[in-house]
Amino acid sequence: MRRGGILHPTLNRILTETGHTDILTICDKGFSVPQNCERLDLALVEGIPTVLDVLRAIEAEFVIDTVIVTEEMKEASPERYQQLATEFPELSFTVVSHARFKEICPESRAVIRTGDAVPYANIMIVSG
């Protein structure tokens, strides 16, 4: 039995199989996951876990090159964007439109769905 870190076996497998420059999407409860992507549904109830909860767990064990967020997050949920920037000052952030985000998503190695209900909470992490 593991002492700590990420305990979810599927998430561990996804992280292990993710290569340099691969994309992982961490999305809110309402995001439409593309059919061609592996989907890992971690949503338990509304708000649990959040995108930030999952990012915190992944960032502790995984090399992240860039975090992709949307312009709409900055506009509709500025508190969340500020929280990301404050908690992860060492990470590089790229801002794209929500439409562009949805275009990129099918390239994701996997999409991790959370119970997050914050508008436009979705992020992508690019493996370092």
Keywords:
single chain; 128 residues; alpha/beta; RbsD-like fold; 6-stranded mixed β-sheet; 5 helices; 6 strands; 32% helix
Using the 3D structure, state the CATH architecture: 3-Layer(aba) Sandwich
Query: What's the CATH first level?
Result: Alpha Beta
From the spread of the alpha carbons, the general shape counts as: globular
Instruction: Kindly report the average pLDDT value.
Output: 96
Keywords: Carbohydrate metabolism, Cytoplasm, Isomerase
Catalytic activity: beta-D-ribopyranose = beta-D-ribofuranose
EC number: 5.4.99.62
Pfam families: RbsD_FucU (PF05025)
Structure characterization notes:
- The chain has helices at 9-17, 51-59, 71-76, 78-87, 98-104; strands at residues 23-27, 38-41, 64-70, 92-96, 110-113, 123-127.
- With 128 residues, the protein is an alpha/beta fold.
- The protein has one domain: RbsD-like fold (3-Layer(aba) Sandwich), CATH 3.40.1650.
- It is globular, with a radius of gyration of 13 Å.
- The model has no long low-confidence stretch (mean pLDDT 96).
